[in-house]
Amino acid sequence: MLKNRLIIAGLVICLVLAAMPAVLSAASSQSQEISLSGGQQSTAPVTLGKSMSTTAVTNNIATKYWLELKAYPSSNTRSLWLYAGNGWRCLSNPSENIETSVQNAFANPDIFQVKVWYSGQKIVGLTVVTK
Questions:
Q1: Under 8 Å CB-to-CB from 84, ≥6 apart: which residues?
Q2: pLDDT tens digits for 6-19?
Q3: Whether the model pTM is above 0.90
Q4: Three-class HEC string of the chain
Q5: Residue 72 pLDDT greater than 50, yes or no
Q6: In sequence order, what are the beta bridge partners of 93?
Q7: Is the distance from CB of 57 to CB of 42 less than 8 angstroms?
Q8: What is the spatial distance between Cα 120 and Cα 130, in angstroms, rounded to a whole number?
Q9: Across residues 94-105, what is the average pLDDT?
């Protein structure tokens, strides 16, 4: 019962993260190019105005995680780091529900996996899905 609630909570949070402005602004251009390479999806506008700048959003499966329980130096924000696409990706100030969902996914790797959407080192979305 608790596992089902955690899965549902994780999915709801992922839907909220998917609606983040960074993802929407990258996808809201009038003309888009979607390219598939090596099983990864990348979305970026074909043409950019002079004042616009954008970075492609890529997704991959996370294979490792690192949760900062106390930020150092103290002026920094707590972060969740996920290793995806041959590099560490950061989510600043993750909620307790996100932390719990990711930890449960890595504690049960035969059942769950964490899919990450990122732009550079910044995580713009993530989901915990069953295999």
A1: 60, 61, 62, 63, 116, 118
A2: 566 565 565 445 54
A3: no
A4: CHHHHHHHHHHHHHHHHHCCHHHHHHHCCCCEEEEEECCEEEEEECCCCCCCCCCCEEEEEECEEEECCCCCCCCCCCEEEEECCCCEEEEECCCHHHHHHHHHHHHCCCCEEEEEEEECCEEEEEEEEEC
A5: yes
A6: none
A7: yes
A8: 26
A9: 95
